[in-house]
Each structure stands twice: as C-alpha cells, then as structure tokens.
UniProtKB/TrEMBL annotation:
InterPro entries the UniProt entry points to: UROD/MetE-like_sf (IPR038071), Uroporphyrinogen_deCOase (IPR000257)
A Pfam cross-reference name: URO-D
Transmembrane segments: none
Domain Uroporphyrinogen decarboxylase (URO-D) per the UniProt entry, residue ranges: 184-381
Protein name: Uroporphyrinogen decarboxylase (URO-D)
Species, as recorded: Geosporobacter subterraneus DSM 17957
GO molecular function: uroporphyrinogen decarboxylase activity
Biological processes per GO annotation: porphyrin-containing compound biosynthetic process
C-alpha cells in the first residue's frame, strides 16, 4: 500500500467516525480554500485563469503542497464565468478585478406570485430565467440552443475540474468524504435570492405574507430535488445549504416564512439518507433551539455566535464546524492565532462531533497572513488528538 493510500484511509476514518457518532483519533480538518485565493496564491491573474481552467492544476498543486488539510483544499468554483457569459447573466457577473459578483436583481414581479405558486417550474422557465439571463429572452428555438451551449459548458468545466481535483485527492491522500457534494437553498432564501431580491422580499412579507408563505411551499419540492446527490444514500455525504436571510428578519417572520419549509427540506433529505451541511451565516444564536430540532448529525458550519452555547445546546446531537475568525489570521500574532485554535478545540472537541474549519471561506490572499494560516493548520493537525 502506498503512503498516500494509507494516509487517505486514515483521514477518511476520521470523518467516518465523526459522522458515525464515534470519537475519532483526532479532530479532522476540513478547510477549503477558494478558487480566488488559490489563483492569487499561485501568483496568477484572477480573471484570466477563470477563463483557462485547464491550467488550474498547477495552481491547485501549490495549495496541496503548502497547506495541511484532511480534505482537498482546492476545488472548481460553481460560478464559472463561461456559462454565465453564454447565458447573458445579470445575477452573476465578473468584476474588473476578476471576482464573480451577485448584483441585486429580481426575476419575479410582485403581481406574478399567483402564477409562481400555481406552477413554480413553468414560471421559472418561462418568465424568470429569460429576465435574469438575457440570452434566453428570445424565440424558443434560439433559447434552446443557448441553453444547450451553456449547459454543456457548465458540465465540461465541472467534470474537467472534478477529474483534476480527484487526481490531487489521490496523490496527496485526502479524504474523499467531508466536502460538499451538491448545493440547494432554503426555500425562503431561494425566493429572496433569485426571484424577488433582498429589498423586495423584506417588503413582501408585510404586503403579501400569505403569497410569500405559499411561494416557499411551492418551491420546496424543487429545492429537495436539487439537494439529492447523484449517488445512493450515504451517512457520509453532504448536501450544502447556505443560510442567508434568517438573521435579517424578525423572529415571528422566521417562524412563519423561513423555518417550516427549511425544516421540511432538511427533514426530507435526511429521510432519504442524505445529510445536510448548513452554512449558518451571520448570527443564529436566537434560533439555536430551532436548529436542535433538525435531524441528528446535521452538519452545522457556524460563522458567528457563542461556541460554548452551541456546544452545550447542539453538540451532543449535531456536528459542529467553524467559529474560527479569519480576521484574526490577518490581525493577530502567530501565538494569538494558535491560542484561538486551542481555545476552540478545548470548547468544541470534547465528546467528538467536531470538525475544524474557519468561520468562512478565505477569498483573498491579503485577507490573511499566510504564515498564520499555515501555523494554525499545522497546530491543529499535531495537537488535536483525543
């Protein structure tokens, strides 16, 4: 057996134990470094490299060599500019600096809620997509051609990137489990993000509360379908659900509009054998008791909040990640950065059900001190044994 294969088996066992409710040999590390960070770290041009993804293997190789993680730190972005360009996207556009940005747009008008509720899929295809993607706003024949080109471009890039990262996963002995497999959204977030926009949805919940609630119910089956990975059920999978709007609405609105369909989504996926990985964005401490009610072993990646309270309330039922502030990697000394890792390990690791990660993805190289980042990862790898 090669050293890489043995290392891969050892790392995989760490995640299997956490997901199985066992205490692993040590705390596993699941730190993914964004495509933007990877390109900058390799000294390449951000905009140019995103149009030449065949050249990314050299970029990813450098990440694998210089940063310790148990899962592959590199990955192709789902926001590849090629298919967005073919679609004439208004919702994701590349800035002059090369970053993909999400402008405030909306594809559903307020007077179209009834049509959406009656048939959300038809409404998305016939009304919303042609508004968000300008190249689809044409006759049916041309629309089909554009759709086919964009679909092929998306999957060509995704498959090519997947083969590239799989090669590095095997070469460096990373765990094949622990990362993100597919992405879906909480129904309310989907209605807010792509259909009505942040500004409109905050007004809609006051002006058309029943229609908003019905729209969330109507789109839930689509969100469930989007969250099913292309493989048989497994306790080691991860359906990624980034949670956006909940911290920005009132408690009574969360209870009415957000929670019922979000819980249904996570419950249905779990019932089919597909665990969810939630990116608990911003501060969810006022909703912590709701989170407890989700299916056992739901993975929860926290951005902000009180790690002691989360461990106390959720740590025996769910799997906890996050909390480490990447801002400290920029502003702190090496000793302060390591001390923070030790503090979080001491709080979150006892009893298992903990995976080390930062509070969010690292997007730019100048947002952290690279030496601090490397020191923290090395510390956790060597000092988080049970």
């Amino acid at each position: 057996m090669t050293d890489a294969k043995a290392l891969q088996q050892e790392r995989t066992k760490l995640f299997e134990d956490v997901y199985d409710g066992k205490i692993p040999k040590r705390v596993p590390i699941n730190v993914g470094l964004t495509l933007e960070f990877a390109i900058q770290y390799a000294g390449k041009d951000l905009a140019e490299m995103q149009w030449n993804t065949a050249a990314l293997e050299e970029v990813f190789e450098k990440l694998c060599q210089d940063f310790f993680t148990d899962t592959n730190p590199a990955g192709i972005s789902l926001r590849n500019p090629l298919h967005y360009k073919l679609l004439g996207a208004r919702n994701f556009v590349m800035s002059s600096s090369g970053f993909m940005q999400h402008p405030e747009v909306h594809g559903l008008e307020a007077d179209e809620y009834d049509a959406f509720i009656a048939s959300p899929y038809d409404c998305i295809m016939e009304k919303i997509l042609p508004r968000i993607y300008t190249e689809l706003n044409t006759n049916p024949v041309q629309r089909s051609i554009v759709f086919a080109k964009a679909f092929k471009a998306y999957w060509d890039e995704l498959i090519s990137g997947g083969m590239m990262t799989q090669k590095l996963t095997d070469k460096y002995g990373y765990s094949p489990i622990g990362g993100i497999e597919v992405l879906t959204e909480a129904p309310f977030d989907f209605v807010a993000d792509q259909l009505r926009g942040f500004k409109n949805i905050t007004g809609d919940i006051r002006r058309y509360p029943d229609k908003v609630a019905a729209a969330c119910e109507a789109v839930t089956p689509i969100m469930i379908k989007a969250g099913i990975p292309p493989h048989p059920p497994s306790p080691y999978g991860n359906t990624f659900i980034p949670l956006h709007m909940a911290p920005f609405i009132r408690d009574k609105d969360f209870e009415k509009f957000y929670w019922p369909t979000f819980k249904k989504l996570v419950d249905e996926l779990a019932a089919m054998g597909y665990p969810s990985m939630l990116f608990v964005e911003h501060d969810w401490m006022r909703y912590i008791d709701y989170l407890y009610e989700l299916p056992e072993n739901t993975r929860m990646w926290f951005e902000y909040g009180d790690p002691k309270l989360v461990k106390e309330k959720l740590g025996k039922k769910h799997i906890i990640m996050g909390f480490y502030p990447i801002t400290l990697l920029k502003t702190g000394t090496k000793e302060q950065c390591i001390d923070k890792a030790k503090e979080l390990i001491d709080i979150l690791a006892p009893g298992g059900k903990y995976i080390f990660n930062f509070d969010k993805g690292i997007i730019t190289t100048d947002s952290v001190n690279i030496e601090n980042l490397q020191a923290v990862l090395e510390y956790v790898a060597k000092n988080a044994d049970y």
